[in-house]
User: Fold these one by one.
Assistant:
Number 1:
Amino acid sequence: MNELLRNILADLRVETLDEFDRNFARKAFFNKPWPERRAPGGLKYKLKTDHNR
């Protein structure tokens, strides 16, 4: 029984990691697309302006 549980957990780990990798390849979390990213540098600009206050 112990070996069976270890095998199931190992298989689950492999499948979970594969799905995680596929999320990045399709830019979606299980078929739900990620929101579009903001303009590059937007956050950097905000941090710079807040820092100069």
Number 2:
Amino acid sequence: MVDLELLKAIEEMMDRKLDPVNQRLDRVEQELCEVKEGLSEVRTGVNTLLEWADEVGGAIAFPIPKMNL
């Protein structure tokens, strides 16, 4: 019985010690989701600009070089 109580005490201590780490990981995961959303918006904007450049490239005297991404 003593071993079980000791293991339970160790478990509780480890949970308390790891709580700040878990909180930081939660914040990092949230920030990563926000970065992914921002990246999606930027990618959409870049693709829109590239399509526009392709359309107007032949209409002006200075052709815009084609981007190979």
Number 3:
Amino acid sequence: MKALLFFGKLIVMEREIMFFQRKVDRAMKKLHEDSDAGRAERGLETKDGDEREVPELEKNDLLAMVIAAMITIVPVALLVLVGFGLVIYFSLIH
């Protein structure tokens, strides 16, 4: 087993690489199982055949989404602009 001394901390290279490799292998297996090729291997219907029902928007849904976006975005944008303004003020004028 190889080990590396890095800033006073002993790092065991092979064990960490093996642990990471198992995670990668598990993720790749999961991706394959969820893909169309994996579904075809198991004899299941592909996702293209699944038709999902899209809910209809009601009359004021778009207005509600715009208001919610403004409530979320505008305060953050104002804080960023005030921050930039303070940086410019203290660096150039003050």
